[in-house]
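Continuing from yesterday's entry. The apo prediction looked reasonable, so today I'm repeating it with copper (II) ion included to see how the binding region is handled. Same sequence as before; SMILES copied from the compound registry.
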Amino acid sequence: MNDWFAHHLLGLPELASLNGQAVDDLMVYVHWLMLALLVGWSLYFGYALWRFNAVRNPTADYEGSKSPLPKFSEIAVVVIEAVLLVGVAIPIWAKNVDRFPKPEESTVIQIMAQQFAWNARYPGADGKFGRQDMKLISSDNVFGVDPADPAGKDDVQVLNEIHVVVNKPVLIYLSSKDVIHSLKLVAMRLTQDAIPGLRIPCTFTPTKIGRYQIECAQLCGNGHAAMSGGFIVVQSQQDFDDWIKSKSASGAPASFE
Ligand SMILES: [Cu+2]
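Holo prediction written out below.
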């Protein structure tokens, strides 16, 4: 019932992550409440038009309704809203900003937003990122990678096409090279600001193989719209391994002019 409501009536976009179900459920609950309020208020409006019209009430009644119903229905609405906020919304938020999957069990990616593209970096076969230093950051080394560190030799850097493995948690460390951007993955129900100087963890678990658009959710300059040229590609472990291999074999990291 909830799924039907979400996709046929509310028109929510395609859902492709495990964590996103709770977000959709919350949206459905809020809309059920709004629907109940709409119907309730409409019925009351119709009743008031009939009950208090001039024909039935030739002289005005200055005391109005004495029914306790309005007070109880208001209290009920406040209670339901409090439950939605404290019992549903805040726990979803708390879980998403506080509980992250173990790196060993995840696809770990560093994402560096910049005007106007998404750089992504993978640790490669050894599972370790090479040393990075802020002082080394330049236009063709956005992650400040130290070329002398052997752990970084097999790291893979890509631009605008970020591959992940289906049904495996993705652990992203998000940052920005220049201004505030925001990584928005609608199908994954994930939105996180990318802030220069901060490395912010965020996570989702993709559940459907496919190609999903990345959007920037902060107006970040005149090429802002171009940042929707980024994609998340969800694939099987085998396809992902082949892709990483082909990328690390190609040597020099992709860079953005
Ligand atoms: Cu942006």
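Comparison notes:
- The longest strand covers residues 107-114.
- Residues 113, 181, 216, 218, 220, 224, 227 surround copper (II) ion (CB under 6 Å).
Will overlay with the apo model tomorrow.
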